[in-house]
Write a structure and sequence with these properties.
The chain has 14 helices and 14 strands. By secondary structure, it is of the alpha+beta class. It is extended. The longest helix is centred in the last third of the chain and has 41 residues. Helices cover 41% and strands 17% of the residues. The strands form 5 sheets. It has a 5-stranded antiparallel beta sheet with strand order 4-5-6-7-8. The chain has a 3-stranded antiparallel beta sheet with strand order 3-2-9. It has a two-stranded antiparallel sheet with strand order 1-14.
Amino acid sequence: MPNPADSLMPTPSLGIDQVIYRTQHLMDLHQGQSVQRLRLRSLLDGGVAGVRMLLGDAMATLEDVMPVPPLLHTAVRRLGQKIGNGVPDLKVDPYGYTDSEAAKSGAEKRERIVDSYDQGGRLELQLPQVGRWLPGYGFVVWIIKDGKDEDGSDFPYAQLRDPYDCYPGPWTVDQQPTELAIARIVSATEIMNQYPEHAAKLKASLGNQIPKMPGGAVMLTGTKGPSWANPSGDGVLFIEYFYQDGTYIVLPEHRLLLDFIPNPIAPHNRFVIAKRFAFNQLNGHYDHLIGLIGQMTRITILEYLNLEDSVFTETNVMGESLEGNKYRKGRHAVNRFAQGTRVEKPINNLPYQLFQGVDRIERHFRGGASYPVTDDGSSPLSFATGRGLGDLRTDIDGEVKEYQTSLRWAIQDLDRKRLMWDELRNGKNSRPLVGFRNGVTFSEKYTPSRDISGRYRTRRVYGVMAGWDDATKIVTGIQMLQAEAIDIETFQ
């Protein structure tokens, strides 16, 4: 059934040409960064594409014999585990008279409401992926949309989108753009199934050209070949343009507006973006390390070739062979020489400086990638003290806390917009609320217009030891408990 709030939604404020122009502009702004996204994704996907990205097309066929260092994969995983390790604690403060039982009860109920959003949207499963994408691409994107609970009731769902396909607008001092375009190659067959009213026009204009925007910027989102969003290989460029008044679904190659989805929380955007802090322009955490990885790969290959040459060193023969110019090689090979012939196999030592060069590059990489050797269970020193290891963690902990600051505010924005969405979309429609919070199960109902009633503010708090591994947390927690710095409840 249609939602009553839909009748109050605004009509489109932009025409098809304006949407295409704005999308083209956003893609042009990200043209250089899109190349970096492609390089990073190719490296992390590995295989031929990863080798080609490091060493060029001519070397890609030698993938099986090329030892590409896996440090980048491990660095992304280690840092991602620290950033995306658990959902920050939810706190909702009472409004008005904070000592009143009604204010406290309302705040606790809104906590349970937001907690149900997190459970319904599986936020805990999204954050490990966010931990990889946020440093890798430099930002992550959530879209607020209608979701369905197990019982069929509506709730605001925060959908995590792949930043590889996203083109945000200019960043303001609030770290949030006012517009967003998402560009993908989607199967034309699936589009015609979803929008049958446009099927005839789309079928008549399908072509096999390379996906381009009308202004000429070549898309880097993929090819016409099969993919998860384009299994039949007949894909077309599919644009979702998010503006304050709503979402425009556009096929720019065909100048076709497929749909307009009004934004129920206008003038607030229905998307939230968490970004890493940068000096001048948005960069990924590993963008400056890709050249270093390529150099390390080349030197590693030379190292292995030198080792192989040391094993199969050529033989020098000073004398006359009794078998003419024939010289047999390999195991069990026998050659016959004249009396007095001298055969030598020179020793080919591997230069020690080669190993030192690789070690130095690895140290540079680990410093830039925030990936210390302690993450692999190794001591950085011949002897290790607790204070020494603690000092080594300081820089890494600061890096993680900075990411968590950005992520914490983004999730608070998610909470605010989800509460706003729920109140404006569902209004007086009651919804069941079932879950487990603070050691207590709950089962009740709530009405968004009454129980939310314009109170959208929440707080997200990371624990003191957020990002630490479980063993370190336990040992540190016991030490703080014994020193009576914290109580047993806080430790638990």
